[in-house]
Design the sequence.
């Protein structure tokens, strides 16, 4: 497990079913990729009620997830009123028949009895209440043991013992020590601003840690915005820009970076302008570039 994703991992474990277990080690030569967004597949009942079969994984399910959850819901908002039952089939074999709302198919992602690795067809069939022909939709799903890149951000917050700062992390493959190596990562958000107060100049700015075991000390320079310059390695703040921090020139073998930023003596280096933050990371590796 990534040693710097502990908070996120514990949260996922707390939400998972008691019997859930993560998938085994990632196979070699997995690509760098970002998890996809949800896709809704439309269904129209004979009476005109509009439903969707929701695939939260956009056709690509990483089996390192502790569980999966597909559902049938009303298009837009509101309760389903015209459904007698929903049937789920995996590659033509019925795996669940649900006569009551909420209409969901849940399972353990890493279990071969529930979701084997490989390419599949998921068929969702809805039987209307009060009679009428069933309606169905089919969508493709690939279940993979290759794990997606990811990020965790906690800008502009308390770090304990009266210290206020920020935590940022990015990894090339979630909870994997065998993912693609990283060359660079950029953090960006529409509601986070980087700044360098005059009183922070010349002072410690926190640390950069990598999964290779290296820890680098960050320092606000007397002039400029580069917090770390070590060989090709750079950590640079970008005051006022949407892309507010970049880490580049990472040494070989790095798959996870974590930053702890503290603006000592002059206030915060990162300021959040919203309670609902939308921080993403652009991860660059020899295998390509993804936004997560």
Sequence:
């Amino acid at each position: 497990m990534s040693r710097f994703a502990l908070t996120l991992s514990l949260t996922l474990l707390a939400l998972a079913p008691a019997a859930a277990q993560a998938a085994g080690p990632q196979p070699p030569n997995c690509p760098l990729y970002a998890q996809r967004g949800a896709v809704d597949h439309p269904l129209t009942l004979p009476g005109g009620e509009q439903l969707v079969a929701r695939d939260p994984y956009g056709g690509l399910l990483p089996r390192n997830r502790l569980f999966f959850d597909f559902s049938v819901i009303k298009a837009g908002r509101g309760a389903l009123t015209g459904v007698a039952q929903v049937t789920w089939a995996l590659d033509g074999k019925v795996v669940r028949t649900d006569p009551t709302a909420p209409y969901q198919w849940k399972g353990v992602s890493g279990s071969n009895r529930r979701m084997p690795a490989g390419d599949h067809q998921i068929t969702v069939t809805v039987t209307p209440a009060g009679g009428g022909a069933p309606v169905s939709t089919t969508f493709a799903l690939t279940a993979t043991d290759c794990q997606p890149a990811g990020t965790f951000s906690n800008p502009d917050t308390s770090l304990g013992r009266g210290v206020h700062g920020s935590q940022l992390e990015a990894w090339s493959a979630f909870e994997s020590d065998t993912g693609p190596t990283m060359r660079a990562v950029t953090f960006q958000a529409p509601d986070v601003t980087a700044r360098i107060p005059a009183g922070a100049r010349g002072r410690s700015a926190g640390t950069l840690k990598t999964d290779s075991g290296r820890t680098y000390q960050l320092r606000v320079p007397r002039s400029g915005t580069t917090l770390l310059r070590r060989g090709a390695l750079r950590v640079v703040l970008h005051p006022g820009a949407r892309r507010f921090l970049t880490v580049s020139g990472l040494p070989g073998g790095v798959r996870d970076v974590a930053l702890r930023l503290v603006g000592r003596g002059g206030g915060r280096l990162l300021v959040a302008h919203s309670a609902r933050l939308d921080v993403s990371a652009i991860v660059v590796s020899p295998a390509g570039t993804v936004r997560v």
Observations:
- Residues 6-15 form the longest helix (10 residues).
- The two ends are 19 Å apart (CA to CA).
- Helices lie at 6-15.
